[in-house]
Batch of 2 targets.
Target 1
Amino acid sequence: MKKLEELGEFGLIDRIKSQTSLKNTTSFVGIGDDAAVIDQGSHYSLLSTDLMVEGVHFDLAYHPLKHLGYKAVAVNVSDIAAMNGIPKQITVSIAISNRFGLAAVDELYEGIHLGCEAYNVDLVGGDTTASRAGIVISVSVLGEVTKDKLVLRSGSRENDILCVTGDLGAAYMGVQVLEREKQEFLANPNMQPQLENKSYLVGKQLKPDARMDIIHELAEKGVVPTSMMDISDGLASEILHLSKASGNGFTVFFDNIPIENITLETSTEFNINPVVAVVNGGEDYELLMTIKQEDYENIKGILDLTPIGFVNNEKMNWLVLNSGEKTEIKAPGWK
Ligand code: ADP
Ligand code: MG
């Protein structure tokens, strides 16, 4: 038997998937997309869940609990958006150690309620338990989509246009900034944090938003992407998921990827190759989608949606750098 660390996160999920069979005909899509798809006859229900563990996904030294609550909702909603769906209900489960008081729980739920307002979802249940150490937050989300609008990871066709929402790399640089401030604070507790011009990066890391705005805009323009997913683990990793799901290869032009100036400036300041921040850095929670060529005219009016590549006919995944140099996009290591 392989060791867990050899398998990696995605290898482990593949293994679980291979040991799973679906019994109910209503289980239309199971493990392997951003959300499960349940056939309700008249429409599909979408179901997804995400776990956030203190010390793994967040550090309370710099992550305010209110932001954390909001983020827990947003990252779940993002998986519903990735199916072209509309989120409706969430449940929230928390495990919390006695290191935290009532005020901390209130702060967390203040953020959760703000998230529910922002995405028009209802908190309808959950579970509460003690933990030996730290906080664990698990959110599940239920959404829906009409049958003609469902978008899976697998639907791309050759020559489709690859598009991304927003800009990439900011959340990754945000966590670098926060880590540096934490180290400096630990060395000198009287120091004031130097975050003034980094607020965009820090905001993207601490309080990301799900791109429901884009889902609504696509609907207004009558465009249904051929495939879609959200970017939680980094562009390279997600390209490989879209590629595996569809059997197609993708060509991505680095030059076309939207990157904020502050992301580039900060990557220089930190001596981090911007390609690493933008292509491998995760947690952007932007949407990555393919659209048919004939839909290009229709999406032009969506300002925050940018073509960055296309579905090639080589069944291989390429990143074309500004210099014209072509490198193969390969699987990242264990996370
Ligand atoms: P995302 O980043 O979009 O939340 P993940 O990479 O966490 O997606 O999960 C990919 C797929 O694997 C999803 O369909 C998810 O439901 C499924 N999955 C992840 N972990 C498990 C698990 N422990 N058991 C069953 N399915 C899982
Ligand atoms: Mg996802």
Note: The longest strand covers residues 86-96.
Target 2
Amino acid sequence: MATRVLIGGQWGDEGKGKIVDVLTEKANWIARFQGGNNAGHTVKVGDKKYVLHLIPSGILREGKTCILGNGCVIDPAGFLQELAEVHEGGIDTTGRLWISDRAQLALPYHKALDGAREARNNDEAVKIGTTKRGIGPAYMDKMQRTGLRAGDILEDDFEERLRQNLIEHNQLLKLHGQTELDPDTVVPEVLAATEQMKVMIADTTQTLNAAVSKGESVLFEGAQGTMLDIDHGSYPFVTSSNTTSGGAATGTGIPPHKIEDVIGVVKAYTTRVGEGPFPTELFDDLGAEIARVGDEFGATTGRARRCGWFDAVVARYAVMVNGINWWAVTKLDVLDGFETIKICVAYDVNGERVENLPAHIRKFAACKPIYEEMPGWNCPTTQARTWDDLPENCKAYIKRLEELTCAPAGFVSVGPKRDETILTPSAPADLSL
Ligand code: GDP
Ligand code: IMO
Ligand code: MG
């Protein structure tokens, strides 16, 4: 397959970075299409650990070209800091990293506003538990058509427009009772950072379309997950972009019919970081045990992730809205020590059985999981390298997830490293490791 979109099937942190890294071996281009440095994609290569926030995980493989598409929001200072970290990790990015001239900028006043909105303390205020990276306010400016784009950095009036935007956002900060930003400090800082970005700004829509026309392979790296999608997720407890597969087209300029394959990444259980309903959340020792074994702490904010059983209603919904062709099921090894494992197959809403995900957050919050229980496998899987190495109960668990979600598993992952990945019998014919 020449064009593959990879998205998260739950609430983010499914292990997308690891799977992108595995698939990058056979790709020419890796493109992010939405979000910003709210993402945290951890990739382990040998003994080294890299945490990518904005830069596509594909950058870790020599010779691969990476793109930040028009659907992204880019924080210049955050981007440069991350770039420096990647360089310190021994990765040469020269000529391999391009920023769409149509991508929006996430600027210091967006961050300040994000923080201010989250700090509100009145009854009407919905606290989302954002990453405070300015994502919502940056997309607000995009949608109201006042945002600054990467291409604007190259224009003579950039400084003037930046200053004007900052002054306008100071009025909003004042409304929130926050200290205004000093233009004479902030503007020069932004200019110093954007100056360094100039050499990477290009019309990536043309470049990527030309690559696709030549039959080169492109991997679209999703950030966040289906349930955090601005339209399809658990609104309002979502991020501000389209995290689902359609976002790959609008967020890069590649037409939808040129996208050949959609991969959903799901954990073998569920996690969520931030506020909002989560039907299968475990508040007991089992939840704490999953968090401990799975090392469930956010890569961007360090916050503890909420943990619970696999939710097949969510995953089925993800298959529908993304058109998922196959799953990469990650962190299977985290369930190695459990006597029994539960899967949520439907919800109970005030005595009514609900099979599909409700749109309204109040109804979703009322959903109680209806569980099916399966025996655990109670032995380590991390050493497994083939499907047949896996214990029977473990294979049965994967098979059940496939049945319940109406999509096959192509990969299962039994550890964070590249080689801790197994190709399943249901994998598409052209897929190999
Ligand atoms: P992403 O945001 O979807 O890329 O996921 P994160 O990187 O935020 O979180 C996934 C975490 O699980 C990272 O620390 C990975 O190194 C780790 N990980 C990925 N796959 C596996 C796996 O199969 N087993 C275990 N134990 N850890 C994994
Ligand atoms: P990756 O790509 C998990 C969550 C935040 C919050 C909500 C809105 O690593 O899977 P935002 O800062 O985007 O306005 O926050 O979305 N969130 C994530 N949760 N993984 C992520 O990215 C996330 N990016 C944002 O915790 O609930
Ligand atoms: Mg993450």
Note: Residues 12-13, 39-41, 299 surround magnesium ion (ligand 3) (CB under 6 Å).
